[in-house]
Amino acid sequence: MSTENDGTTGRPPEGPVPGRPDAPPSVPTPPAAPPSSPPPPSPPPPPPPSAGTGAWSYPPPPPPPAGSRRRSALIAVVAALTLVAGGAGGAIGYLAADTADSASYTSGPSSTVNTAGGERTERPPESVAGIAEAALPSVVTITAEGSGEGGTGTGFVYDEEGHIMTNNHVVAPAEDGGTLSVTFSDGQTYEAELVGGAQGYDVAILRLENAGDRDLEPLAMGDSSKVAVGDATVAIGAPYGLSGTVTTGIISAKHRPVAASDGLGAASYLSALQTDASINPGNSGGPLLNASGAVIGVNSAIQSSSALGQPAGSIGLGFAIPINQALRVAEDLIETGEPVYAILGVSVDMRETATSGAQISTEGAEGSEPVVEGGPADKAGLRPGDVITKFGERLIDSGPTLISEIWTYEPGDTVELTYLRDGEQHTATVTLDSRVGDSN
């Protein structure tokens, strides 16, 4: 049986989550062939299948430059939407548009931007050109080197103290004694150190080491809880190494359950913002902005229709970490260097089940108890075999969906959940516990 513990026992996530190399691949659209058989029930997760098996596979990275083996570190693997959707064709999770008014483009004091001919043209600051002009000086390209491998990704200035926010998978190649460098839009490059990374959230914070007197301008932070489906979006990043690339779109969906893995037993679970702004390998860690130029998300993953041997590319299905969650994680990383996770204290079955929901396992991984004694679930009366169908305001259709929702909360939060036991529906209120650090 494949189970997933929400963090109480400190083990790496398990279950049918595809592997993610340091240079984030994308998840292709599954071919019409029959789905592959369920993965074996032993950790770590199975390696990613090859294309043509009916399961998710990974595209090759762009050609490496001479003298090094480099992977375009950008888009993390989108967790098999089929897995999360239970075969529902990607129509997963509980989708709800926020009731806040949609942002709109408005006129205001003009911004001056360069044209191809060198002339400078006036643009309203809330136009895409105005947003790009203001944001580009604060968006950086990150190069991570380590053990003969390397990757490139995107990040952005978080504060005036020199902190840079990005994805954890962008900096992963440099975690064990490697090097990190940050290049700004004016071509200036600085060394950086890793302050801390949260593999489960896929958030990392760097700090510039030699910025000197550089005038750092942090990007304005928005409120992802007020984002509505249909709101305009602007994505900035370095797809395939093309720094300073700007694309636009809308918020296509909210609370989209997404899971991703590095193939070594470590996984990330997101309740993501979905956008159709073009996002490609190299965009990971870059900002997703609203129509006012404020950050509402951190670009992290895509789904792609790439074929075997062909580079992955955008098909209008991009996923970003909501900025409210990323900000909370960033503060923990800056303060202590470690992420903090909310936990329910159960192991859940990560396979597709006959009953929609997240089923608490009847056996814990490696002989542990599936419901941790004295944990939040135990105190609320949950038992092995119970199927959780709703958590807070979100409908739950699988184990990965439950985990992604739990991690949107903070330790100490009180949440009402709905579960089935012997075919009967029950409700319970739980107070979430905490785990410090990623599972090892």
TrEMBL record:
It comes from the Bacteria. One of its GO terms (biological process) is proteolysis. The chain crosses the membrane at residues 73-97. Keywords: Hydrolase, Membrane, Protease, Transmembrane, Transmembrane helix. GO terms for molecular function: serine-type endopeptidase activity. The keyword Transport does not apply. Pfam families: PDZ_2, Trypsin_2. The keyword Membrane applies. This is Putative serine protease PepD.
